[in-house]
Target: Aconitate hydratase A
Amino acid sequence: MAYDIDMIRKVYDQMGERVNAAREVAGKPLTLSEKILYSHLWDGKPTQKYTRGKDYVEFAPDRIACQDATAQMALLQFMQAGKKTVAVPTTVHCDHLIQAKLGAQFDLPSAKKSSDEVFDFLESVSNKYGIGFWKPGAGIIHQVVLENYAFPGGMMIGTDSHTVNAGGLGMVAIGVGGADAVDVMAGMAWELKFPKLIGVKLTGKLSGWTAPKDVILKVAGILTVKGGTGAIIEYFGEGAQSMSATGKGTICNMGAEIGATTSTFGYDASMERYLRATNRADVADAANEVKEHLTGDAEVYANPEQYFDEVIEINLSELKPHLNGPFTPDLATPISEMGEKARANDWPINVDWGLIGSCTNSSYEDLTRAASIAKQAVDKKVKAKSDFGINPGSETIRYTAERDGLLQIFEDLDATIFSNACGPCIGQWDRSDRKGEEKNTIVHSFNRNFSKRADGNPNTHAFVGSPEMVAAIAISGRLDFDPTTDTLLNEDGEYVKLDEPTGIELPPKGFDVEDPGYLAPTEDGSSVEVKVNPDSERLQLLEPFEPWDGKNIIGAKLLIKAFGKCTTDHISMAGPWLRFRGHLDNISNNCLIGAVNAFNMKTNFVKNQITGDYDGVPATQRKYKAAGIPTVVVGDHNYGEGSSREHAAMEPRHLGVKVVLVKSFARIHETNLKKQGMLGITFENESDYDLIQEDDTFNFIDLENFSPDKQLTIEIVHADGSKDVIKANHTYNLPQIEWFREGSALNLIKKENAAA
Model:
């Protein structure tokens, strides 16, 4: 039986009435995305039509999922909200704090020892507030959610950008910051700008070396890292129905890399098969009763241009396998063209590592397709030229794969089986062959390949591909290897060719596991004590941020003008910094250390306008804060893309930054800034970015009249006394301006709870 089956049945019981009402107020057939959105309105039955990309709407998500790195700050915030238990089903998953090094048998005990106080905190706070807890080693959050909690037609939010993975089971699942999750945990509405809709029509059928991963690699190349911003991507067509549920999950998962709010597919037979295989026949039966509401209306898919803001069509029968990268997930290259492109760009041809797994590609089907290539190498006496690393998606996947002999196939190629955790995908990798200044290449089936993402080395060129393609390239040891045409020299001196991969959608013997790693909370957690050592370097109870004084911000200094791509990895790095995710002051020592200073093209090296000296960003900002001087961060396009980590908003807020002024924001980061009481604004004219000089002072001369749809005026005073006056845009509505006035959204929640 499924977890929370009564909640799921309630969603389905009211869905028909709400969808019909939405169709009436909208005056047209509905996409699947619209059906789910309108059936999850905070006020219940729809009574008005919402304008895509404009109207802020309050929703009532069905559940919340948190991974351990972000759960620390989210739950530290929830502890301040004054609630006895969470208002909606919530789970915590320990998957980010396990470093990959020697293999699961060594790495998991090491992680439990080094992060015991964090795991103990998360387990106890979960137990106290009615939250399901998945232990270290239980699996990667998004694979565990897909196996246990995701359901067609549902809405969930999660404190990780790849929450969108659950779209593989027909959900609208959206990555958010911890403050958003806290709102919903506390029984409040969750606000989102009603998304635009991008339709992707899939025709034909995948075959040969082409995999579901290649669909999103192709889409990423079309839309780029910001092309999906503010939109839900809805896949449909015969090609969509021909793929497995986990294949759909892979496509939805990596939709986060193109800025999409989320991605989803309509309910079909593959989802029903997956639900039944994962012991959720009750969900499948309930979904079948309302299945007409769990996909878009027929008129929508027949004439998609009339109902979507943008339509992309991909013929799966013609789609070629791709590799995307390096350094950005939208640089898409068909594998047949990679050799020529690599040589033209001086990318290292030799491949040092092939990494398979992560939340993107760690299902049973993924492992079988990759294993089919690995087994050929063993059988055809081809020795792998690259090192192999495997991260199973969950203990259920690992146990079943071991039972069925899949892991042994990889081990026969000397692969290292890492823990059921994120590992290298999020920078938790103690790489055995550190390269230093030497340029090097790795290939992986992960979702992100930003500079320094996997191993902290800016010289590592990471390329993203399907598990089977990663396996083939790692076996060959060459980036320019095209398994569709090329051959390999085996130990007998013979040239052999790899056959096309084969996969098994679901294990013929069924899934099995001895201990899935789940701990249910006690029914009454009032007596549970949550302990945080005041001397801990890992955990720190939060102090509320100061409210706005209602005055204009005058005399603010430039902290940094970030050049080019500035993701949340640049603003708040992961890797070794993950250990401080529960201690705001300590982790603030990584604030913006990865951002490139536009004035010297260096990282973590900015001018202190008080002394004229150059120092690291956090050290410089702490001096400004000590002197009572407000500061401004200036950035380029899509500022804050990538992970949902709210630390990227909380750290500058904690250190005293008042304003972030950029050309454009990534959706989650903009919301995180608002939630933490920051002023996140954009240049009216993008070229005004070029006006900003290293010694500038900023005066926000009409902030006292801060109101929706009203531009802000900024006076920029240069070192020579000259001035430029520019306009800035913002997207704050009245409730969000109230967050700013109160100092944070959490401050407002506490204030309202105290008054209740």
